[in-house]
């Protein structure tokens, strides 16, 4: 299913749903960031997805990262809460979802990089190379907050 992101766009359609989701800032021992090239909007992003009934949000993070990247992770902290009502995602089935994402920091435990139905490419990216990738502004904000080593409190906004 394709998706169009609207970020502070006055032409955005009104939201008709809110779905809790998670994303993960996963960094390896040399500081590279785990990113996926999404199939639904063709943008680079942190791995993540919807929170399922019967899971804790930490379990959702572990499952989503594994499903989209092949990497097993351990959640270590909350990086931020992203609920901007002026960021909506319109899907081709008519759903227009208001952003509601909890971003976590996680560390890799093992596994091997692989793609999925949601990720056409998966790679470890040096933060210095992020400007070379097509990344949504909201995702850039999550990445920025997740990589700030001195951030003590999570971002809430």
CATH fold-level topology: Nucleoside Triphosphate Pyrophosphohydrolase
Mean pLDDT: 93
**Given the helix and strand composition, which structural class is it?**
alpha/beta
Helix share, percent: 10-25%
User: Could you give the distance between the termini?
Assistant: 28 Å
Q: What is the number of strand segments?
A: 12
Task: Name a few traits of the molecule.
157 residues, alpha/beta, Nucleoside Triphosphate Pyrophosphohydrolase, five-stranded mixed β-sheet, four-stranded mixed β-sheet, globular
Descriptive account of the structure:
The protein starts with a strand and ends with a strand. It has helices spanning 57-69, 137-147; strands spanning 3-7, 17-18, 21-26, 33-38, 44-45, 48-50, 71-82, 87-91, 96-98, 101-111, 119-125, 155-156. The mean pLDDT is 93. Strand 8 (87-91) and strand 9 form a beta hairpin. The longest helix is centred in the middle third of the chain and has 13 residues, at 57-69. It has one domain (3-147): Nucleoside Triphosphate Pyrophosphohydrolase (Alpha-Beta Complex). With 157 residues, the protein is of the alpha/beta class. The strands form 3 sheets. Strands 6-3-10-7-12 form a 5-stranded mixed β-sheet, sandwiched between helices. It has a 4-stranded mixed β-sheet with strand order 1-8-9-2, with no helix packed on it.
Please describe the topology of this protein:
Blueprint: E1 3-7, E2 17-18, E3 21-26, E4 33-38, E5 44-45, E6 48-50, H1 57-69, E7 71-82, E8 87-91, E9 96-98, E10 101-111, E11 119-125, H2 137-147, E12 155-156
Parallel strand pairs: 2-9, 3-10, 7-12
Antiparallel strand pairs: 1-8, 3-6, 4-5, 4-11, 7-10, 8-9
């Amino acid at each position: 299913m394709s998706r169009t992101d609207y970020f502070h766009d006055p032409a955005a359609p009104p939201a008709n749903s809110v779905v809790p989701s998670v994303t993960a800032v996963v960094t390896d021992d040399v500081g590279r960031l785990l990113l996926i090239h999404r199939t639904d909007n063709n943008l680079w992003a942190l791995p993540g997805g919807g929170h399922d009934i019967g899971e804790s949000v930490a379990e959702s993070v572990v499952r989503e990262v594994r499903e989209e990247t092949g990497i097993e992770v351990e959640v270590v902290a909350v990086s931020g809460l992203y609920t901007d009502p002026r960021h909506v995602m319109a899907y081709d089935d008519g759903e227009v979802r208001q952003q509601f994402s909890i971003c976590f920091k996680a560390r890799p435990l093992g596994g091997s990089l692989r793609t999925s139905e949601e990720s056409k490419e998966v790679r470890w990216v040096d933060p210095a190379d992020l400007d070379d990738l097509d990344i949504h502004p909201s995702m850039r904000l999550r990445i920025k907050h997740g990589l700030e080593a001195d951030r003590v409190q999570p971002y809430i906004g």
